[in-house]
Design brief:
single chain; mainly beta; SH3 type barrels; Porin; eight-stranded antiparallel beta barrel; five-stranded antiparallel sheet; 3 helices; 9% helix
Length: 304
């Protein structure tokens, strides 16, 4: 008996004795729709999509309602978990074992009378309930299809994968730095900015920088070779522009740089390195006639 004949067998039984489309609502909030097959060993069995038999423990079910068109749709569906309305032969018909050439019935552990069932445990005064079919099949490595039970293992997916401990939440944070220039903008002694960490290696920033007379705006991107919470080389590139000195001399340009970040504490870092300013606009006397200049930097950075 192959899977197709088994499917035909189950569908004929469902047509003759089931004939009820239902919706099952579980305690965990999940819902399932299918054709009611019957109850067996304190479990409700339904045919989903005309191909797959699913089952749920009666202890996990909140309600079963009619899910067919007509006046009965949405009304409660009558079932009794204390009796078996179907048999294991109907739910799990014997199949031909290609290795032995004999008909063999393969029962899931929960329905196998030869496997002792664990006794109920009480923790903190609460009785443990049975797992959902999805959890049960993941742990048992069982996939139930029309035609019987396959022992094909299923890969487990960890839905609670932890992020690296050094990764900060994906939100903007405020920062400031002071010292001799900065990797974010040249010609500055003090900077205030907002920073957004894309991950443990990348961040974007935007803010203002100032010297004793004048200041400017900047925005840019920074990439760490290592995790930012560890000592790491980095590269940074920013676009900046401002007016400086009492003359209002203007300087606008692109500032790529290479540096090294040394964490002092969880939210403070020492940065040093060197960059080169490609000037797009310049009215400063110090750099008149030049297209760019080298800008080393050393600063102390703090985040809030």
């Amino acid at each position: 008996m192959n899977k197709y004949s088994t499917l035909l067998f189950v569908m004929i039984f469902s047509f003759l004795f089931g004939d009820a489309n239902v919706q099952i609502r579980l305690q965990n909030g999940q819902k399932a729709n299918g054709e009611f097959i019957g109850t067996y060993m304190n479990h409700v069995h339904i045919l989903v999509g005309g191909e797959i038999i699913w089952w749920w423990s009666c202890d996990d079910i909140v309600s079963i309602t009619n899910f067919s068109e007509g006046l009965n749709s949405g009304r409660g569906f009558n079932y009794d978990c204390s009796i078996n309305t179907v048999t294991a032969d109907i739910l799990f018909p014997p199949e031909l074992d290609p290795m032995t050439g004999e008909m063999t019935q393969m029962l899931p552990d929960v329905f196998n009378p030869d496997i002792p069932k664990p006794t109920a445990k009480v923790e903190d005064g609460l009785k443990l309930i049975n797992k959902t079919p999805k959890q049960m099949k993941e742990e048992m490595g069982i996939k139930v299809e029309a035609g019987g039970v396959s022992t094909e293992p299923h890969p487990k997916v960890n839905s609670e994968e932890k992020l690296p401990a050094s990764k900060l939440p994906y939100t903007w944070s405020m920062g400031m730095s002071f010292g001799f220039q900065s990797e974010k903008t040249p010609v500055s002694f003090f900077n205030m900015y907002y920073l957004f960490r894309l991950n443990e290696h990348q961040e974007i920033f935007t803010g203002v920088g100032t010297i004793m007379f004048g200041g400017g705006l900047f925005t840019g991107y920074k990439h760490y070779l290592n995790d930012f919470s560890k000592p790491s080389p980095y590269m940074s590139i920013s676009y900046h522009g401002g007016a400086y000195y009492d003359t209002g001399a203007e300087l606008t340009g692109i500032f790529p740089s290479l540096g090294f970040s040394l964490p002092i504490s969880k939210n403070s870092f020492l940065n040093f390195g060197i960059g080169y300013v490609f000037m797009q606009k310049n009215t400063m006397n110090d750099f008149r006639g030049k297209k760019g200049f080298v800008a080393p930097f050393l600063n102390y950075e703090m985040l809030k």
